[in-house]
TrEMBL record:
<dbReference type="Pfam" id="PF03981">
    <property type="entry name" value="Ubiq_cyt_C_chap"/>
</dbReference>
<dbReference type="GO" id="GO:0005739">
    <property type="term" value="C:mitochondrion"/>
</dbReference>
<dbReference type="InterPro" id="IPR021150">
    <property type="entry name" value="Ubiq_cyt_c_chap"/>
</dbReference>
<feature type="domain" description="Ubiquinol-cytochrome c chaperone">
    <location>
        <begin position="139"/>
        <end position="265"/>
    </location>
</feature>
<dbReference type="GO" id="GO:0034551">
    <property type="term" value="P:mitochondrial respiratory chain complex III assembly"/>
</dbReference>
<dbReference type="InterPro" id="IPR007129">
    <property type="entry name" value="Ubiqinol_cyt_c_chaperone_CPB3"/>
</dbReference>
<protein>
    <recommendedName>
        <fullName>Ubiquinol-cytochrome c chaperone domain-containing protein</fullName>
    </recommendedName>
</protein>
<comment type="similarity">
    <text>Belongs to the CBP3 family.</text>
</comment>
Amino acid sequence: MFRTILNRSFLVVRNSQQQQSKLLSLNVRYYSNRNEHVVKTNSNEGDEILKKYKQQQQQLKQQQQQNDPSIKVDESLLKYEPSEKNIMKIDELVDPAKQKWYLKLMGLYTKDTLFLNISHSIYDSIAIHTSNPALYKSVGLPLTVRSWFAMTLLHMWMVFVRLRKDGKVANKLSTDIYDRFWEDLEKRIVRGGIQHKFAAKYLKEFYTNYLGSVVAYDEGLFDDVIMADALWRNLLAMSEDASMSQIDFMVKYIRVQLNKLDNSPNVGTRGEITFDDVSTIQ
């Protein structure tokens, strides 16, 4: 069923990338803006230029090590640290018999407080689940800030789909979960080694990716072929190394998790969600 995608999207992108990556002949001609003349190089000079170019690329790669969220890091990036803001128990918020009288006087038992705590509970479950390195290994994703962002966003989207069943509370909870996500992302950008001066640039890029991913996954909600294409473009970042078996596995994974969430009764009221472990998906 995925052959359509190969013919339509994969081959076009890959052929384009292969064409762009071909080296020019060593008998090159290049123009110098400073001297405004044409320099012809022979084969030996071409070798020197190529060698110098490779050295410059290596130096540039080293400089980007602390600036680029696509640079591979270790598993410590995935470690989740729950926010200290979630200080009230859901049971206490939904059951008047368990509420403390002095907190009632302070007006803390409100719907906003309930939604805030539910959003923390939901996001904690998402972030803990996506902290498993095996989840990334299953689809060949490196442990990078970009990979964590894409994987966590995918699981948030699945929860958003489930929350749509809960009517009016869905919008409020989705917004609160969205806020938890960006708070967490800012922390991981720092832990991922991205310098502060580059953070704003990448946050803007991540925001654009967020919008595009949510729309793409919505379009693939009822169509496996469209979902596979959305996963390749957004989760796997159009990687040439991505295999059809990995994409097929991820489509199955999403269907299993959506079904599990759909049968969870207390998502919007208590923030109770669980995901099946990646090792159980067949």
